[in-house]
Amino acid sequence: MKKSTLIFSVITLLTFTSVCSAETFYISPTGKDITNGRNEQTPFRTFEHAFSVIRPGDELILLDGIYSIEAETGVISYSDKDRPWSGQPPSGESIGKMTVVRAKNPGMAIVEGGLFLGRSFRKDSYIKIEGIKFLGGGNLYNTSYVTIKNCGFHSIRMSGGAVFFIGTNDHANGNSYNLIEDCWIWGQERIIAGNYRSDNNVWRRVVIRGDGCNSVACTGSGNPNVGFTVYESNNISIQNMIVIDRVLDKGSPYSDFATAQHTEGKYYLGPNEWLGCISLKAPDCGFYFEGDNMDDFTYTLRDIVAWDSRAGNVNIGSRALNSVLENITAGMTGKGQDSIRVSPEAHGGIVRNVIAYKAGRYGVNSSAIPSYCDVYGSNGKRYNQSRGSKGDKAVDPLTGGRIPSLKYLVRIEEGSELKGTGYKGGDYGANVIKRYGVDGTRYGDPGYNVLTDEDLWPWPNEDRIKSDMSSASKRGFCADGTTLTKYIWEYLGNKIPEEIYGKGNEEKNGQ
After folding, report:
1. What is the maximal distance between C-alpha atoms in the chain?
2. Are 58 and 25 in contact (CB under 8 A)?
């Protein structure tokens, strides 16, 4: 054989192998494992069988229906006596060749029993889970480069654990470079969602609601209830996350957004960032951050809304190093509580471009010298620890000036006194109207945490989110006649701008 012919043959073989290596399979609660699973008419029945057949980089499509132990399909988890017929997908080969497990019709494939990826002896990598509703929560136990997209997670176990969690204290194998994007998590657990001893993860556009937890595991000292927590982790980017309408029932209060670090000598906390996030109607604190071992730039909070918190809006405690609090809209705290607090133990840091409205005690109580702060209506002093330096204002953001600065919680109005008059021509307060992070990017990728030109509103998947969460409670944004977008935009009593939904959406625009 001539050399050129040999080279051509090898290239052809490699191309043919590459093209043909990824296959698509189907699974259904009415399927049969004796079929080939290669089309909708001959789907598999059990996850155990399906995942034994598909190879790295293949796709498994879930047809409509309920998948469960009772339905004898198993769940997406390891198999044991309590989880017969269950299985975990094989790892993919790379970002470009991920194993995909997705619903054919988003929201119409329901897995009763949750999601569990990885084992202490097995790392699951390069896997994408998309469009599925999991009743029973989820855990990325030992993973890397996993994507969870357009999925809902719910749990009512009241176990003292979490509805959805990245990480574990069972092993030290790490859970890194995972992406949770356009998901929603709700239920009755002590923690609704969390990132524990897991680094370099991105949580993007996630909606969280706690529905109360009254078991012994959720009450008393040492069992704080939180919406979302970053615990003993670093390089975590939380983008456009909303924690909304949490209730405690008998659970012990803590915060909508929380951090912690209490293992001496390792698992340092930070640097971590919260970009374009919203805490609304916290039954305790909006953002309560603490920890013992801190990395530099422990916390970055930018374009943050914390409103109607029973305790403080933003409380940076303990030993934070050079944290950045910039463009914060904080208002309506409980009696004796501060809008913005940075602990005397914190070192360095920036507090600027802040709206602090009607604090129950101090407007800005910060060891870092604040600048460009609009502090109005505090029940106690406007400032404590350090007084505001440059750009100090005392304007009512809701009614002051020819054009009120805050008609809507998520933006500062054009032509208002707080628009464009802050640090380096920025605004006082937060603008949460565009998406942070380029879709699909992971920690460290180009554009992974930039403020994009993509509109954030209407909120993606909001009809599915409301439908799912309404099954547990129709309070707040789940009430009849509203949407998640409308509820947040109209929270201060002003009608949602027509351009948010656009013309032809009279019902959603409130017309």
Report:
1. 90
2. yes
Closest C-alpha to 196, from 218, 216, 169? 169
Alpha-carbon gap, residue 346 to 269, rounded angstroms = 14
Q: What is the token pair recorded at 2? A: 């001539």
Where does residue 216 rank: exposed (0-12), middle (13-18), buried (19+ CB within 10 A)? exposed
- Residue 68: pLDDT band with limits 50, 70, 90: very high
Query: What pTM did the predictor assign?
Result: 0.95
Amino acid at 150: N
Number of helices (H) and strands (E) in the chain: give both, helices first: 5, 32
pLDDT of residue 20: 55
Whether residue 224 contacts residue 254, with contact meaning beta carbons closer than 8 Å, is answered with yes
pLDDT at position 510 is: 64
Q: Are 210 and 191 in contact (CB under 8 A)?
A: no
E strand or H helix at 487, and its extent? helix 484-489
- Mean pLDDT (whole number) for 159-178: 92
> What domains, with CATH codes, occur in the chain?
57-455 (2.160.20)
What's the full length of the chain, in residues? 511
Q: What angle do CA 8, 10, 13 make, to 5 degrees?
A: 105
- Strands 133-135 and 152-155 come out as parallel
Note whether 145 and 125 are within 8 A (CB): yes
- Minimum mean pLDDT range among 7-11, 19-23, 376-380, 452-456: 7-11
Residue 407's SS3 state is: coil
User: And the tokens for 44?
Assistant: 């598999």
- Output the 3-class SS for 4-33: HHHHHHHHHHHHHHHHHCCCEEEECCCCCC
Residue type, 217: A
Q: Which two tokens stand for residue 422?
A: 């802050």
Reading the block at residue 48, the tokens are 């155990």
The answer to whether 27 and 37 have CB atoms below 8 angstroms apart is yes
Give one DSSP letter per residue of 78-110, joined into a string. Answer: --STTSTT-B-PPP-SBTTB-EEEEESSTTSEE
Give yes or no for residue 14 having a pLDDT over 70: no
**pLDDT, the chain, mean:** 94
List CB contacts of 138: < 8 A, sequence separation 6 or more: 114, 115, 116, 148, 151, 153, 163, 164, 165
